[in-house]
Amino acid sequence: MKLINRRRRFLRDALALTGAVGLGGCDKLSETDWAPKVLGSATGLSHAAQRALARDAMAREYNEADISPVFRPNGSTDPQAPEYRALAANNFRDYRLGVGGRVAHPLSLSLDDLRALPSRTQITRHDCVEGWSVIGKWTGVQLSHVLKMAQPTKAARYVVFRCYDAMDDDSEYYESLGFDDAYHPQTLLAWELNGKALPIPNGAPLRLRVPRQLGYKMAKYLRHIELVDSFRSIEGGRGGYWEDQGYQWYAGI
Ligand SMILES: Nc1nc2c(c(=O)[nH]1)N[C@H]1C(S)=C(S)[C@@H](COP(=O)(O)O)O[C@H]1N2
Ligand SMILES: [Mo]
User: Fold this and answer.
1) Does residue 68 have its Cβ closer than 6 Å to ligand 1?
2) 31 pLDDT band (50/70/90 cuts)?
3) Residue among 77, 223, 84, 253 nearest 160 (CA)
4) Within-domain flag for 169
5) Helices (H) and strands (E) in the chain — how many of each?
6) I need a surface site. Which of 79, 112, 184, 253 has the fewest CB within 10 A?
7) How far does the chain reach from its first CA to its final CA, in angstroms?
8) Could you report the per-residue pLDDT of 39-49, keeping only the tens digit for each?
9) Does some domain include residue 168?
10) Looking at the 3D structure of the chain, how many domains does it have?
11) Is residue 252 assigned to a domain?
């Protein structure tokens, strides 16, 4: 039953991509240039070719006037895991982000620790694979900064993000990035949306922002960051919750 639900959801999104289903969102899918790239079967360029083209590109940054009145939440919006509820009840004062795996210096960072690091604010567009977009202002620390503190070992090839929220099938949401994207200057661990503490529906207290990729890459409710040499042995082995349902690992836009 659960498998059927996942399959159905995947097919629904795939249909939305082809334009066969009405889009409730803001931007029309036909105005985006990434739609054909997302599903493995529809992709023309190889993952390596896309990355070579996109490696140094910056996502467009917008002005204050462009910020959407509401940053539409999607996916999990209110995690029920007891560990998460306890943190939320205390306004995330006891929150710690763990950074471990293949690193020389494992870290455990409070929100205050994170806020004390150099921060970056950027107004960028968020494109969901379902075909809608919103523009928001994000503040956080560059992931590269935290990785430099942790010092990945030579064996490390991917950065895996573990989250607090469980999905319909009870597995935890997770995502992963290669080093090109992890060290990109616009890749942030963000604690602020539009000048305010990140709201729970959008991933409080900390989420990933990777503005050159689709929304599903941007893990909310971050629990732990793990440096690995391979993600084959994690969950479904494809590097992310939605990747395990068939979406592409490299979701560049
Ligand atoms: N932990 C977690 N992260 C997640 C999701 C989720 O369900 N759980 N949904 C993803 C999807 S598909 C999108 S479009 C964005 C939505 O971010 P928003 O809720 O701030 O709009 O979060 C992504 N990150
Ligand atoms: Mo999404």
Assistant:
1) no
2) very low
3) 223
4) yes
5) 7, 10
6) 112
7) 33
8) 544 445 666 77
9) yes
10) 1
11) no
**Residues spanned by the domain of 7:** 2-244
What six digits make up the tokens of 105? 């210096």
| CATH number, position 31 | 3.90.420.10
Q: Using alpha carbons, list the distances in angstroms from residue 64 to 59, 114, 185.
A: 16, 25, 20
Q: Tens digits of per-residue pLDDT, 91-121?
A: 999 999 999 999 999 999 999 999 999 999 9
Measured from the CB, is residue 162 less than 6 Å from ligand 1?
no
CA of 103 to the centre of ligand 2 (A): 30
Asked if residue 219 has its Cβ within 6 Å of ligand 1, the reply is yes
From the CA of 75, give the closest atom in ligand 1: 7
Give the predicted TM-score (pTM) of the model.
0.84
Contact 114 CB / ligand 1 (< 6 Å): no
Confidence of residue 215 (pLDDT cuts 50, 70, 90): very high
pLDDT of residue 3: 46
Asked whether 142 and 187 are in contact (CB, 8 A), the reply is yes
Q: What is the mean pLDDT of the chain?
A: 87
Classify residue 253: in a domain, yes or no: no
Q: Which residues pair with 174 in a beta bridge?
A: 162
Q: Of the residues 10, 76, 172, 188, which should be mutated to test ligand 1's pocket, given the most ligand atoms within 8 Å of the CB?
A: 76
Determine the atom of ligand 1 nearest the C-alpha atom of 222.
1
Spacing, Cα 82 to ligand 1 middle (Å): 20
